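User: Before I run my own analysis I want an independent prediction to cross-check against. Here's the chain; please return only the structure tokens and, at the end, one sentence I can use as a sanity check.
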Amino acid sequence: MSDPQEDKRGGDDEEPPVLEPVKESEVEVRNWFQNRREGATLLKVIVENKTTDSLKIRVQIKHDEESETPCNVRFPLGEMNENHLFAKEKKCLVHMEKINQVKAFSKIKVTVQTKKKQIKQFVSNSNAGSKFNSQ
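Assistant: Structure tokens:
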């Protein structure tokens, strides 16, 4: 007699799913001795203020749609803002990583907007609050 619980549990009659073979065009083969020291490639975005004024800058970096090469860099999601870039100052805004080290970089479109920033200087000449006791 067959046990009804055995039918619910499933037996050895089930076949495992069939896996599709991998196509040769999908496999990337590299020589380990030539590529063993290859690490991540980073791009630094550095801005420099060459004026004597303080600037507020906005930088947007994205893939150039007119480019025929596919995107091979991880771009920031939005615009980068720097509220105070003082005179003759240099700052690194972001690091971007190359996705596939073997393939070429994609073309990048950079949009930069600057605005002169007024620095308020506070000078106080009052003696209010300072009392001297002379005895």
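Sanity check: The chain has two helices and six strands.
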